[in-house]
Each structure stands twice: as structure tokens, then as C-alpha cells.
Amino acid sequence: MTQIRPAEQVDHPSEVKDYKFPALDSLPALQNDLLLQSATGADPRALAHPPIWVMRQAGRYLPEFMKVRKEHSFFTVCRTPALASELTMQPIRRFDGLLDAAIIFSDILVVPQALGMEVQMLGGVGPHFPTPLLNPADAQQRILDRETNVFNELNYVYAAITETRKKLEGRVPLIGFTAGAWTLFGYMVEGGGSKTWEKAKAWLYRDPDSAKAVLQRITDVSAQYLVGQVQAGAQLLQVFDTNADCLTDAGFTTFILPYLAALPAAVKAQLAALPTPLACPPMTVFAKGIHAPSQLLALASCGYSTVGIDWGITPRAARLATKGLVALQGNLDPPVLHAGRDAIRREVRELVWGKDGFFTIAKEGLGGGWIVNLGHGITPGVNPDDLKYFLERVRAECAKKDADEKEA
Question: How many CB atoms lie within 10 A of CB 6?
């Protein structure tokens, strides 16, 4: 039976003209720096509370988000600074005082677009590349031989960041982001999402040198993109490699880790080389599905200040694997938010005070920064009031000095 998709929306982004990077000291001063303190290793028990934000917090679970999306296509929103800024601000307004960071509304696939590839967002399907990369010769012609002006291609993201920094008025820091090269390579070769990523993986086995060249090109553009986000006002950067668990251990070491490691080094160097040098803000890497101690230690040793973890590993195991080198971010299983208040209360308590919980292990001496988050993005269908309850329960549990303390 043929699936009938909803009528596709037409992209109609507003052209960005005359955007210039702001003088960063002209933007509102930050009033809540809990995120930055935690990213640089502050003991969560010494803070007013550990900082909390949620991946995809500006998303389809919010009625106000869906109202905007009903009127505008996905990439129209991404490419129109006023709309992207509005969606970024929606959860900050709704959960006033309960979120400790905003993350700019955009998409990881704006980088393939900047590299010259057409990307569509199809209703009921998701991202679609009408003409994916076919082979090394195709990649050479379309990606490697093509000049990419990162500022011209992505200045709409920069404009949205600057506008949002002004709207936030310093209430919370603003996070910028990009994706790891392997995750983007997968989409560019497969033409969209995949359960097996077999075309992309076969390319690695068949033509590893070609794959490495494309991965390096993606990384170079992504580094420039992140530098521009800092110049625009981003105060922390996150790199998402959400398909990191698709490869073998050798594949991770060869085709994922070197390109993740290259990003913080390149960003720091390029920021330092600007006419007016800028310090690199804290950077987080989230490589979904990475649980092996050797791989987590490698991520913790390659220049990031924070490693994000998904729900498949305990805080204790992650702390032991990363040896105190980095802060950790995570890691409530997102479907808990669909399971009702009793489940949310129980699982938050487990996250904080369970035998392997963040505060339990901190009291035992396994310390380090902690940024509270889900183990992946929040999913559609979550009741916003249940997310609010999650945020409130984290505050309540983290206010306790020990697991048995009664709540006020």
C-alpha cells in the first residue's frame, strides 16, 4: 500500500542581508553561568543546582512550535533568523527559570546544504537528499573540488544566534552546534536516514581514502561554521555524532574519532588567529551509543570539556571510563517522559541518588561536572507539563544533601 504523505510545504526563507558579526561585549552579559561552570568541572553539589537543558527542547512536543511549523516549512524556519530565534526562545519562556541553557534552533543538515547538496524535509519521511553521493568520483566533483564560502552559506544561522543572544538578555547561555563528520557523511551517501547505513559503511570498506577525504572536508567546513557561531555569540558548542554506534571499534578509531578530535583543535586555533582573538568556549561531544570504556576515554582525551552520554550507560561507568578528565552530560531515557509522574519522579531520583547516580558517586569521590539532560532528544507527544515536572524534580532531588533527606 502506498503511503500518502501530507502536502509538502514550500521553502520561502527570508534573505539575510548585511549581517556582520557583533562586538561580543555589546551583547547582554550572562547572568546564569551554571552551564559554563559545570562544563569546566565544577562539582554539581557546590552549585545552586546542576544546570539543566534538553536536547530538542525547541521541538514538536510544544504547541507553540507546531503553530509556527504549520505556517512555515522546516528549512524556512531554519533559514529565517526571526523564526529560528522565536523557536529557540519558546522553551525558555514556557519553562521560565527552569532551563539553564538555550540551544539555537537549526539542523545538522545545513552543513551538507552549505557544501552544495540539496536537502529536503519531507512530511512523514524526514530528511531526503534527491541526489546523494554515489561514488568517489561523484564526491570529488561535487564536494572536494567545490569552493564553499561558509559565511555566505550559513550567515542565517549566525544572524539567528546574534538575535537570540539579544532576546535572552543574559538569562541563560546560548549553545551552538554542528554534527560529526561521520553522521553527516552517512546522510549524504544514503540520501536520508537508514537502519543499516550500509551504503555509507560499504564506502568506508571499499574506498577508505576517498571516505577520509570527504570526512576531512566536512570537518573543515564544520570547524569554520563553529568559529562563526562563536563570533555570532554562541557561548558553548556541541558536536552531535548520533550515528557513532554504527561502526566497529576499528571503524570508530579510523573514521569517527580523528574527525571529532580535529574540531576542538581547529576551532581553538582559528579563534586564536582572528584579528581580534577570541577564547574558545567549552565544547561538548555527544557520540550516541558509545559505551566502551576505551572509546569513552578517547572522547574524553581529545579536546572537549564535556562528554554527553546516552541512557545505555550508568553515570558510575561513564565516570570511571572518562577518569575525571571531562564533565558528563545526560542521561535520562527520553521515554520516561511518556510514562507518567510516578515514573518521572522515580527515575529522576535514580539518576541523582541511585547506587550509580550522579550525586551518589560524587559523594564517593567520583566527581566532575554534570550537565543534566536526556540521553537523546525529547520526542513528540511528550506533555510539556511532564517535562516541567522533570525539571522541577531534578531541582528537588539535587537540593538534598543526601538520599534520605526529606524535601522541604
Answer: 8
Q: Are strands 306-308 and 327-332 parallel, antiparallel or unpaired?
A: parallel
Give the whole-angstrom CA distance, residue 396 versus residue 408: 9
Residue type at 346 in one-letter notation: R
Alpha-carbon radius of gyration of the chain: 21
Helices (H), 238-357: 249-251, 257-272, 293-300, 315-322, 341-353
Q: Which of 158, 187, 225, 304 is catalytic?
A: 187
Q: Please give the order of strands across the beta sheet that includes 327-332.
A: 102-103, 174-179, 236-241, 283-287, 306-308, 327-332, 370-374
Active site residue 386: no
Indicate if 316 belongs to the active site. no
188 SS3 class: helix
- Tell me the C-alpha distance between 214 and 176, whole Å: 23
The Cα 272–Cα 291 span in angstroms is: 33
The single residue of 11, 45, 60, 316 carrying the catalytic annotation is 60
- Kindly name the residue from 33, 107, 241, 310 that is annotated as catalytic: 107
Concerning whether 56 is annotated as a catalytic residue, the answer is yes
Distance CA 234, CA 319 (A): 27
Active site residue 187: yes
Q: Which is higher by pLDDT, 12 or 91?
A: 91
Task: Report pLDDT digits (tens) over 72-103.
Answer: 999 999 999 999 999 999 999 999 999 999 99
Annotated catalytic residue within 33, 61, 69, 156: 69
The backbone region for 129, taken as left when phi is positive above 0, alpha when psi lies in -120 to 50, beta otherwise, is beta
pLDDT digits (tens, 9 = 90+) for 329-379: 999 999 999 999 999 999 999 999 999 999 999 999 998 999 999 999 999
Nearby residues of 136 by Cβ (< 8 Å), 6 or more positions away: 207, 210
Report the residue count for the chain: 408
Distance CA 395, CA 209 (A): 49
Say which residues have a Cβ less than 8 Å from residue 351's Cβ, sequence separation at least 6: 315, 331, 332, 357, 358, 372, 394, 397
